[in-house]
Amino acid sequence: MKTIQLTPSCKDYLWGGEKLRTEYGIQSELHPLSEAWMLSCHPDGPSYLPDGSTFQQYINAHPGCLGTHCEKFSEFPVLAKLIDAKKDLSIQVHPSNEYALEHEHQYGKTEMWYVLEAEPGASLYYGFTHEISKEEFERRIQDNTLTDVLNAVPVHKG
Questions:
Q1: What are the residue boundaries of the structural domains of the chain, listed by start?
Q2: Which of 22, 38, 60, 146 could be joined to 140 by an S-S link, Cβ 3.0–4.6 Å?
Q3: Fold assignment, 1-90
Q4: Are strands 80-83 and 123-128 parallel, antiparallel or unpaired?
């Protein structure tokens, strides 16, 4: 099997820091350096081969290079990224594949996180602590108390 060296697409969201550059060697002119999309065929941030072509172009030019299990997907179904969240990230709702394909013409976002390092007290939010109504959701956004009903999951390295 051939090894392919990829260059990531990088993002400079407001919540990012500098660790991806200083501690992980990601080369980018962006400040802050929030995300490095290491393995991506997403049109908003593809990974690149040394010749400047995208990973998707490589896949298209080399049918079967990913094995047979990926053939059932119309698009490469994985996006692996490194994130430096110096500040809190925004709270997001990710659509199902069905909804995203119909309305956004791309797959939804099923996520998995592997924490390489974390400050003491770091956490990820996942879902709500209890079922809330649309009205309560809207009110909590307005009065900035939404995090009070989010399920905080403590995280640590590894």
A1: 1-90
A2: 146
A3: Jelly Rolls (2.60.120)
A4: unpaired
